[in-house]
Design a protein that fits this description.
Distance between the termini: 16 Å
Structural class: mainly alpha
Oligomer: single chain
Radius of gyration: 22 Å
């Protein structure tokens, strides 16, 4: 690819980067309504059915059990769908899976909104089950990052910028929807549905197909030269031909545990246990803050917005800065350490000030998630046989995370419910965080050992001018 093509590619890559950031922003603004109100709506449905029989703490515990079961069903379906969606994205392009994410999320949001008026648990359950594709949106964004970055060094900062869209949605979504909730939760869900429609329009109308772009401008390097220079192996434009062999989840999952890529296998194992540990926050945070601090929806929304501001800094600047100073592997370790410190803060949160002090560490822990994605793509660059299967492999990684969510949601919700139900020997609201703290401590030790076993040789540096163009920052 000559200099003229470099400039043309940099322009189209920049467009994809910012359109992707805008699309993921709108998507997660819609998702924030469910994040903010889903546990509250489920608790209202449970109270409508059993409120006369149990105390408020017992209703909260029962809600936790129900939420664990619904999250388990959602994660199980996501586990089955992840590799298939990834494989479809390799065949038909990245825009199709994003549209499927929209349909899945839109139906879930609509059904949860309907349950506001009818207060039936089965309506919430149906919506949660049909929303199983929502989790694949991040996977597709990682695949897009792989498509538009021709060098592995460009992936970390670009992925961080795209993920700023998620953080920005956490800033705007919960706070604004929390304010709207003062006039009625239904208005928050109306805004969420409108944001979802705008997401679809942005993807259909303004997002170029990344695989087509890479097929046109990709480097004409052999797989071996790509390995030697740390560049991604160019993908071919998506084909409309697909077979059941291509949709076989095991086919993509095999690459994760290939003997030629042992560190990739470790990353897959970490993805499973890390996602398992993260369920302490994903499954119980709203109910935990309700019992511990008695947050209203507005205060919870403002707290999430504060979290989003710090996430913007962590993903948009801190991750790129950290990787440029200490490398992607050490950044991975820093993220794990921050996860441990965040759990220590949650466990000791006897007042809101300690919680606020713990949140920055929780935000910086996202560097480990971003690092896994970048390291996975970097490992795939080493294996020429994985060309054209990026989406499938990333889908398999997401599938492992969903399987962990399937199990972790049950464990976290059960532990939380048991220790607040009054049946446990002690009343301990933060018991689920102790379990995650132990698991992350183990993962930190395992990661340090794995990195000592599987050394990583940094590729030779690319020409600075060309590197700037290929990273989408001319």
């Amino acid at each position: 690819m000559d200099v003229q093509d470099d400039v043309a590619y940099a322009k189209i890559a920049k467009k994809i980067k910012f359109v992707s950031m805008g699309a993921i922003f709108l998507f997660f603004v819609g998702e924030s309504a469910k994040l903010l109100y889903y546990p509250t709506i489920l608790k209202a449905c449970v109270a409508a059915r059993w409120g006369s029989e149990y105390t408020d703490d017992q209703i909260t515990a029962l809600t936790s059990y129900y939420k664990g079961g619904l999250d388990m069903a959602n994660s199980l379906l996501g586990f089955l769908a992840g590799p298939i969606i990834g494989a479809l994205s390799d065949k038909f392009g990245r825009r199709l899976p994003l549209m499927l994410c929209f349909v899945s999320s839109f139906i879930e949001t609509l059904l949860v909104a309907v349950s506001i008026f009818y207060q039936e648990v089965w309506i919430v359950a149906l919506g949660r089950a049909l929303g199983f594709l929502s989790n694949t949106s991040i996977t597709i964004m990682v695949a897009i990052c792989s498509d538009v970055c021709l060098t592995s060094a460009a992936r970390a900062p670009m992925l961080g910028i795209i993920m700023v869209g998620v953080a920005a949605a956490i800033i705007v979504g919960p706070a604004s929807l929390g304010v709207l909730g003062l006039w009625g939760i239904q208005w928050s869900f109306l805004v969420a549905l409108v944001a979802a429609v705008w997401f679809l329009l942005l993807v259909v109308g303004f997002l170029p197909e990344p695989l087509n772009i890479k097929g046109k401008y990709g480097q004409s390097e052999s797989p071996s030269s790509s390995i030697n220079h740390g560049a991604a192996v160019p993908s071919q434009p998506p084909s409309n031909k697909v077979s059941f062999r291509d949709l076989n989840p095991i086919r993509s999952a095999r690459i994760l545990f290939s003997r030629h890529l042992p560190f990739l296998g470790f990353l897959a194992v970490f993805q499973f246990f890390g996602s398992f540990a993260e369920q302490d926050i994903a499954s119980t945070f709203v109910l935990w803050t309700d019992l511990r601090f008695h947050f209203t929806s507005l205060i919870l929304g403002l707290m999430m917005s504060f979290y989003g501001v710090l996430m913007c800094v962590a993903q948009g600047w801190f991750f790129g800065f950290l990787t440029s100073k200490i490398g992607i592997r050490r950044s991975f370790v820093v993220g794990i350490v921050c996860s441990i410190l965040a759990r220590v803060g949650y466990i000791s949160s006897v007042n809101i000030y300690i919680l606020i002090a713990a949140i920055p560490f929780a935000c910086m822990s996202s560097t480990s998630t971003l690092a896994i994605n970048v390291l996975t793509l970097k490992e795939l660059d080493k294996d020429p046989t994985s060309t054209g299967q990026t989406g499938g492999v990333l889908g398999s990684m997401t599938s492992l995370g969903s399987l962990a969510g399937f199990l972790g949601a049950v464990v976290a919700q059960t532990v939380f419910a048991y220790f607040v139900s009054g049946h446990a020997p002690v009343y301990f609201i933060g018991a689920q965080f102790v379990l995650s703290l132990a698991l992350y401590t183990f993962l930190l030790i395992a990661t340090v050992v794995a990195m000592s076993w599987f050394k990583d040789a940094d590729p030779p540096k690319t020409d600075p001018d060309r590197q700037s163009l290929l990273s989408g920052n001319p």
